[in-house]
Amino acid sequence: MRKLSVILVLILLTAVCGAAAEEITRGDYTYMLYEDGTAAITGYTGTDTVLVLPAEVEGRPVTLIGEWAFAEKTAVSITVPEGVKVLGDCAFAKSDTLEEVILPASIEAMGDNPFNGCGALVTISIPPENTRFEMSGSGLYDNEELRLISYLLTGPETVGTVRPGTKVIGGYAIHFCDRLTTVTLPASLERIDEMGFMGNENLTTLTIPQNVTSIGSFAFAFCSDLVSLSLPANVAYFGDNPFYDCRADLVIDVPLGSMTQTKLEEMGWVLTDR
């Protein structure tokens, strides 16, 4: 089951870029040149700590930062230039030193958490004229999709809070937030996407709100200290292995006779009345 948010990003990516024409390397950057005259940055091999990304190459405007393009780099600060419209899935992921990202007003779409695994990241700056994306508390939100894109560990907190009105926990949104022991989720929540909570090793308890009907693949995978998970009655969809590598004694509270119970039993879970 593919997520609506990712489908929308792919549609916009196609509209922005058209068909791929040629891959080139200029300096430390790898680009894809598209037939419509635009370009994407798809890779970077440099080691600069302060990066201002190129706005154009070969006279073509850069409109896309590709998936994993700047993953596992050494930058402390990255400025994305005006004209970039799309940040691909995990575009800056697992960059342990990254503390600050400055985004342009031109951003129109973001895939699954572009900042996944950036444990030192405390600042994402977005111009106020871009009303679609917003930092609120520790979260980066898409105000059109009502989606949490990324949760940042900006302080010493151990209890995370997702703001009211949010309907979607995006892919990788709360990923490797190692200090969190629980997360308070809003009643408005309807969907948890693939790997939404994956890798939170200190997460111990979690209550999923009543309106959630879809839980993606590996949503709670590698949450090795999770001992108590409360699920609502009407979860109609579970992706693959949502509890992969969780504790063997994980207690999952489910309303008896519910759709959620039926789906879990179809997946091979043996549920008992306590």
Describe the protein.
This protein has helices at 4-17, 259-266, and strands spanning 20-26, 29-34, 39-44, 50-52, 56-57, 60-65, 77-79, 86-87, 100-102, 109-110, 123-125, 133-136, 139-142, 147-151, 159-161, 168-169, 182-184, 191-192, 205-207, 214-215, 228-230, 237-238, 251-253. The chain is mainly beta. The chain folds into two domains: 1-123, Leucine-rich repeat, LRR (right-handed beta-alpha superhelix) (Alpha-Beta Horseshoe), CATH 3.80.10.10; 131-269, Ribonuclease Inhibitor (Leucine-rich repeat, LRR (right-handed beta-alpha superhelix)), CATH 3.80.10.10. The strands form five sheets. Strands 1, 2, 3, 5, 6, 8 and 10 form a seven-stranded mixed sheet that branches. A hairpin with a 2-residue loop joins strand 5 (56-57) and strand 6 (60-65).
- Identify low-pLDDT runs: 1-8
- CATH domain fold name of the largest domain: Leucine-rich repeat, LRR (right-handed beta-alpha superhelix)
CATH class of the largest domain: Alpha Beta
Indicate the radius of gyration in whole angstroms: 20 Å
Helix content: under 10%
Question: What number of domains?
Answer: 2
Shape: elongated
